[in-house]
Amino acid sequence: MTTTGVTYERTGEAGRRLDALARVYQEVYAEPPYREGPRDAADFRVRAGRQAMRDGFRLVLARDGDELVGFSYGYRLPADTGWWKALEEPLDDAFAEENGRRTFNVAELAVRGAWRRQGIAAAMHRLLIADQEAERITLTVRPDPEAAPARTAYASWGYRKVGRARYGDGHPACDVMVLPVPGGPATGP
Ligand SMILES: CC(C)(COP(=O)(O)OP(=O)(O)OC[C@H]1O[C@@H](n2cnc3c(N)ncnc32)[C@H](O)[C@@H]1OP(=O)(O)O)[C@@H](O)C(=O)NCCC(=O)NCCS
Q1: Which fold has domain 6-180?
Q2: Per-residue model confidence as pLDDT tens digits over 98-117
Q3: Cα 22 to chain center, whole Å?
Q4: Nearest CA to ligand 1 atom 18
Q5: Ligand 1 test: best mutation among 105, 117, 175, most atoms within 8 Å of CB?
Q6: Is the omega angle on the peptide bond into residue 78 within 30 degrees of 0, that is, cis?
């Protein structure tokens, strides 16, 4: 299979696409290390609906013909975010300071199994972060060996780990990663 037929759409609203996103989510996150089920996909549907209302929301969809094969979305962290406070080891106040425009959070990135290793995630990520006013991008990734594809991708795109955090009760600890926006001001922990 090649990426020849894959097309990308970038939009600022999720709207009627949420059900399709949830179907892809359920398929992708059934895999280890996530092993999520239909209930998690239903939770995702609700969460995604809320996240789509956030400032700076941006969604990228990848389609092969009419078929949705991957998606990625994110939004800007608000000034009063608890994102950095959740880190096990506190970061510098100056680094953790937010003003609602400083940081774009990539909340989801998923590509269906049959369409992997063709650069689709890389293309979606490029589109997601293109022309961002933010000075840095952040995301989380599971430390488990099965999440190696995601961790390898983030490392190759220039993300660096700034710490570990658990976002929400019952959620696993994740590595928190940061990528300075190419061409933006230097930023580091
Ligand atoms: C992570 C994921 C989105 C990557 O999607 P993809 O379209 O296959 O990724 P790409 O083809 O764009 O690959 C980008 C880079 O990722 C890395 N990568 C991807 N799959 C990999 C694998 N199986 N093993 C090692 N590295 C891998 C490589 O560095 C690759 O670049 P290269 O092909 O030039 O070597 C996909 O595997 C996925 O949906 N996984 C399950 C959900 C998930 O983990 N999402 C991230 C949550 S934090």
Answers
A1: Aminopeptidase (3.40.630)
A2: 999 999 999 999 999 999 99
A3: 15
A4: 149
A5: 117
A6: no
